[in-house]
C-alpha cells in the first residue's frame, strides 16, 4: 500500500511540475529531502542566479532577398524562352520565299525573251556611266573581297570574344560560307542562256559572286550584333550590298538579275541561320522596341523605305517611257530600271530582315515592368 502511494505521489509531482513548467515557461527543481508520504507536495523556488530554461522552437530562416534553394532550382521561365511556332513559321515562309523568288528570277530573266532583253539592255547601256563612276566602281570592286572579309571578321571576332557568343559566330560563319559556295555552284550547275533572239553571252553569270560576298558579310554582322544595333547594322549593311551590286552593273560585270539573285541566295542561308542564333541565344536577344537606343531609331528603317520608294518611282518612269506610247527611243532607261531593281531588292531585304528579327527577338516580360530586362550593348 505504501509503495502504491509513493508511486502515485511521484507521478503526481512529475505531472504537476511538467504542467506548471509548460504553463509558466519555468522549470522546477526537486530538493532531496526525506520523503514524507503524508506531506503535501510543495513547489520549489528558483534561485536568483539560476537562469530559467526555455523551450527553444526551431526558428525559421531570416528572409533574405536571395531566392531559396528550391526557388533557385526552379528554372526561370524567361531563361527557357524561345520564339513561338508562329514566328518559326514566318522564318520558314521567308526562306521558302527566297528560294521561290530565286527560281522565278532565273526563269524570267534567263529563259524568256522579254527577261533577256530587259536584263541585257540594262547591261549594255551601263556604258553611259562607265566614265568617272565606272572608275570609282572598279576600285570598289577591286577592294571588295578584302573589304568584306575584313569588316565581317573584325565585327564577328570582336563580338564573339567580348560577349562570348561562340555558337552564334559558328552559325553565322557557316551560313556565310554556305551562301558563297552555293553561288559558285549555281553558276556552274544552272544551264547556259538559251538563244531567244537577243544578242548576249551564253555563259551563265547568275548569281553575282561579288554581291553575294558583300551581302553575306553584311548579314553576318547583322546576326552577331544585339537587337538594339540591328536597325543600324541592317541599313549600313544593306547600303553596302546595294552599292556593290550597282558597281557590278556599272562595270558591266553582272546584269541586274544576277545581283537580285545574289540577294536571294544570301537570304535563303542567313534567315534560317538567324533563327538558330535566336534559339540558342535567348539571353542576349532582347528587343525593347524602336527609339530606345540611337542605333535602334526608326530613322534607320525609314531611310531604306524612302529610298526604295524613290527607286520604284524611277523604275516606273523609266519603263513607262519605253512603252508603246513612250517618248524614249534609246534603251538607256533600261539601265535606270535595272539599277532601281537592285536598290528595291536590297532595301526590301533590309527592311524585311529588321522587322522579322525584331519580331522574333525576346520581348520583356510585362509582369516585370518594374524591373526591365537589361539589353546587352
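Q: What amino acid sequence fits the structure above?
A:
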Amino acid at each position: 500500500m505504501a509503495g502504491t502511494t509513493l508511486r502515485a505521489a511521484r507521478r503526481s509531482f512529475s505531472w504537476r511540475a511538467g504542467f506548471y513548467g509548460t504553463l509558466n515557461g519555468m522549470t522546477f527543481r526537486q530538493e532531496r529531502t526525506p520523503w514524507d508520504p503524508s506531506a503535501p507536495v510543495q513547489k520549489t523556488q528558483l534561485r536568483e542566479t539560476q537562469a530559467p530554461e526555455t523551450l527553444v522552437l526551431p526558428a525559421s530562416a531570416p528572409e533574405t532577398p536571395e531566392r531559396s534553394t528550391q526557388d533557385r532550382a526552379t528554372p526561370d521561365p524567361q531563361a527557357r524562352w524561345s520564339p513561338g511556332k508562329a514566328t518559326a513559321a514566318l522564318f520558314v515562309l521567308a526562306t521558302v520565299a527566297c528560294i521561290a523568288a530565286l527560281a522565278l528570277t532565273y526563269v524570267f530573266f534567263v529563259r524568256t525573251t522579254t527577261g533577256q532583253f530587259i536584263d541585257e539592255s540594262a547591261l549594255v547601256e551601263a556604258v553611259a556611266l562607265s566614265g568617272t563612276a565606272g572608275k570609282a566602281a572598279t576600285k570598289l570592286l577591286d577592294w571588295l573581297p578584302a573589304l568584306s572579309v575584313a569588316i565581317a571578321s573584325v565585327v564577328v571576332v570582336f563580338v564573339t570574344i567580348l560577349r562570348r557568343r561562340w555558337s552564334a559566330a559558328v552559325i553565322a560563319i557557316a551560313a556565310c560560307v554556305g551562301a558563297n559556295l552555293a553561288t559558285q555552284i549555281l553558276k556552274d550547275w544552272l544551264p547556259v542562256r538559251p538563244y531567244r533572239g537577243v544578242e548576249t553571252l551564253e555563259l551563265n553569270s547568275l548569281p553575282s559572286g561579288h554581291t553575294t560576298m558583300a551581302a553575306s558579310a553584311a548579314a553576318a554582322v547583322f546576326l552577331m550584333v544585339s537587337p538594339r544595333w540591328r536597325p543600324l547594322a541592317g541599313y549600313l549593311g544593306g547600303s553596302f550590298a546595294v552599292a556593290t551590286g550597282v558597281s557590278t552593273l556599272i562595270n558591266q560585270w553582272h546584269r541586274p538579275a544576277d545581283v537580285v539573285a545574289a540577294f536571294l541566295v544570301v537570304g535563303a542561308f542567313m534567315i534560317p541561320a538567324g533563327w538558330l542564333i535566336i534559339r540558342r541565344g535567348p539571353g542576349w536577344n532582347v528587343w525593347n522596341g524602336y527609339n530606345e537606343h540611337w542605333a535602334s531609331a526608326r530613322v534607320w528603317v525609314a531611310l531604306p523605305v524612302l529610298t526604295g520608294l524613290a527607286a520604284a518611282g524611277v523604275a516606273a518612269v523609266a519603263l513607262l517611257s519605253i512603252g508603246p506610247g513612250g517618248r524614249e527611243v534609246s534603251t538607256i532607261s533600261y539601265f535606270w530600271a535595272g539599277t532601281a531593281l537592285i536598290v528595291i531588292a536590297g532595301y526590301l531585304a533590309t527592311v524585311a530582315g529588321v522587322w522579322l528579327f525584331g519580331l522574333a527577338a525576346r520581348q520583356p516580360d510585362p509582369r516585370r515592368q518594374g524591373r526591365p530586362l537589361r539589353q546587352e550593348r
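Q: And what stands out in the fold?
A: The two ends are 92 Å apart (CA to CA).
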